[in-house]
């Protein structure tokens, strides 16, 4: 990982930006012990990394963000990289990083060259679902624009396809179990691999809202 | 590979339903992808049910334009028929999957049952006057005129969804489920508990719904932006039927009969907009229009007592008279 060079670069950017907006908290830019600087993977702007599967964090509702860190700590959600990072975060780190990322713009994912027919199929699933197979529309729970319904329903529009695929698979296989009332697991269980790839491809093409989460 | 299976199901479906199979069988995923062992939803979709045409089949002509406008009004009433709506609801909030879902009072099953005599209005209702009722009660609004652009588009959408369905036949999936009376008398306190554990995440701690960027993402269940006291959903039995088949959203069929009744009673024990038929006093309006399973002008104890009385009277009457829904030309939908 070229995180060191990237961090230096980030650091310069942060200094340039900090004259205009409030500086991001140091947990994001510097990290703290085992909590590696969030920016090295998620960016200061929360745009993540499409190739590496590091998720977009921009505009996650702070309550949902804090819940995910708590779930990593509790083990109801596990990941070899994020679990140790979450374990090392204090309540204050969680609060300040959540607040910072919630206020960032959420552009579409940059790596989205997928077949238009696949995208059309994904779009149909997101908007209409497939009730004959017990799949409700994604956009009923994640809002008509896919940008989420705070506090419990995160934005999914603009997310990197690789990350969306990994989460849907994780619910389907039972590796991720932290969703309230099994709402998301129930959806994922009825999705085919084809559904998962097309809906993830479509979602990556969305997400253009400029300003922070309300 | 899958085709023969589709046709076999279709052939079975023909018992009673003529024309429902004129179209090709459902896409192969229907039979293949549903993981039989793990499917968490208890309400299995009966393959014998009528299937409305797919949205992609809307014709690309003037007729198709009216179908599409009707669909838009139905799904996003707030935007496409704003002037006729007095609350925060859209038609599709109670008729899921854009009016297609079985056990969610689907439009294809409704269309073929009108004109019909309805006890609520005491007259022959056409599909148009039925839709006007929805605006007056469920949408707490002002009905569009019979010859308005909105009414024409809505009727066209209903008609198109019913393509190939036989008229005058109560199709499986029509209306809402009738949930059997639970073992224990429905109770508000238990209902509150069901609500907090299963519903509040979407409908809010106070039934107020949740908005995202100015629009309701999850509709309100009571209060000023919800359906009024004249709407069918204010009846406890009707609400229990809707809820058990369709709620929590995405988890239809998971609540027990008892939970469905308890939470329906809890939901309908709250304030909501006045019945537009209100005249004189609540007691007078109740006596005139609310001889039914509801909490309009009654305490839960009074409701329980009145239901017991009705049940006794009902068993005597049932022996001599067929249930309204068995009578030709009677709408099985009791109220709206």
TrEMBL record, chain A:
Heme c 1 binds at residues 38, 41-42, 82. The keyword Metal-binding applies. PROSITE patterns: CYTC. Keywords: Heme, Iron, Metal-binding, Signal. One of its GO terms (cellular component) is periplasmic space. Residues 1-22 form the signal peptide. InterPro entries: Cyt_c-like_dom, Cyt_c-like_dom_sf, Cytochrome_c4-like, Cytochrome_c_Oxidase_Subunit. It comes from the Bacteria. Pfam families: Cytochrom_C (PF00034). Heme c 2 binds at residues 138, 141-142, 184. Residues 19-105, 117-207 form the Cytochrome c domain. Binds 2 heme c groups covalently per subunit. GO terms for molecular function: electron transfer activity; heme binding; iron ion binding. This is Cytochrome c domain-containing protein. It comes from Thiobacillus denitrificans. The lineage of its organism: Bacteria, Pseudomonadati, Pseudomonadota, Betaproteobacteria, Nitrosomonadales.
Automatic annotation (TrEMBL), chain B:
Residues 65-162, 186-271 form the Cytochrome c domain. Residues 298-336 are annotated as: Disordered. Keywords: Heme, Iron, Metal-binding. PROSITE patterns: CYTC (PS51007), PROKAR_LIPOPROTEIN (PS51257). InterPro entries: Cyt_c-like_dom, Cyt_c-like_dom_sf, Cytochrome_c-type_DH. It holds the Pfam family SoxA-TsdA_cyt-c. The keyword RNA-binding does not apply. It comes from the Bacteria. GO terms for molecular function: electron transfer activity; heme binding; metal ion binding. This is Cytochrome C. It comes from Thiobacillus denitrificans.
